[in-house]
Write a structure and sequence with these properties.
Strand content: over 45%
Number of strands: 19
Distance between the termini: 57 Å
Helix content: 10-25%
Largest sheet: 19 strands, mixed
Order of helices and strands: HEEEEHEEEHEHEEEEEEHEEHEHEE
Length: about 270
């Protein structure tokens, strides 16, 4: 019998080990934190510096850093001509830069472009009562199959479809201005909703709610093929009604206690 050269054995072992580590790495996993205000956070690392990131499907940006953290890391920022608009109509002026390394649990990516809006994240943190330094928006989440398990408080990112169990219902979505929008109905009236994990609870426009701004109303809503009873806060949503065609926002009160699977290949949001 011919002997196998020792170098070939080493190469084979190395390739097998690399393949095994790649299989083990995907899906990438990381714990979640649910804040007292019902927002979803996860721990991340930028250039080795730990930070807390808000998971916000209602933001079209991929990765946004606070201006405070950007200065701490010494990131060189470039003025851009891009102007974003918050749902309250406030214009936001974006700067861009790059970080060497982004890590989220077992996930790691190099040379990542980031956005910075002076004082924006700091202001949001003050409003919601949780200090955080980054936002992972739809521009990031949509690159992967994403699972947010709000029962066991864990998340998964995968480049391949995932199996998560027997679903309660599903919702198809379309991308409008870089964010996911769901078609449905409120009673007999057709309606379109922004799917927003950055919203602590669902919101309904003043013109549809039949109640004063700031009040809460309970409505039966058709999402996909399923009807659910959902509580909404009444708000003036004229900005997203104009920009996205949405009269409501599906927020985290629908998602709490569930597992959410964002299937980007089929453009479906599964709830378990």
């Amino acid at each position: 019998m011919r002997s196998i050269p020792w170098i070939a054995v080493l190469v084979t072992v190395s390739l097998l080990a690399h393949a095994a580590s790649s299989i083990a790495a995907d899906p990438y996993t990381n714990p979640l934190q649910l804040s007292p205000s019902n927002l979803i956070f996860t721990k991340v690392s930028f250039n080795g510096r730990d930070a807390l990131a808000l998971i916000d499907s209602g933001s079209f940006r991929a990765v946004q850093l606070s201006s405070t953290l950007a200065r701490e890391l010494g990131i060189v920022l470039t003025e851009t001509t891009r102007i974003a608009t918050r749902h309250d109509g406030r214009p936001l002026f974006l700067k861009s830069g790059r970080i060497d390394r982004l890590a989220i649990g077992s996930y790691e990516k190099r040379n990542v472009e980031i956005d910075v809006i002076e004082g924006d994240i700091e202001a949001i943190a003050g409003q919601v009562g949780t200090r955080f330094d980054a936002i992972l928006g739809w521009g990031f989440l949509s690159q992967y199959h994403t699972v947010l398990d709000l029962k066991s408080l864990s998340m998964q990112l995968s480049e391949s479809p995932l199996q998560t169990g027997v679903e309660t219902f599903r919702m198809s979505y379309a991308i409008v201005s870089g964010v996911p929008v769901i078609k449905g109905a409120i009673g007999p009236q057709e309606a379109t909703f922004l799917f927003d994990t950055g919203a602590p609870m669902s919101n309904l426009d003043l013109g549809v709610a039949g109640a004063p701004e700031g009040e809460k109303v309970v409505k039966e809503v058709l999402l996909g093929r399923s009807r659910v009873t959902l509580e909404f806060r009444v708000k003036d949503l004229s900005v997203i009604r104009k920009s996205l065609g949405c009269i409501g926002v599906i927020g985290n009160n629908l998602l709490r206690g569930r597992t959410v699977y964002i299937d980007t290949a089929s453009k479906l949001i599964h709830l378990y």
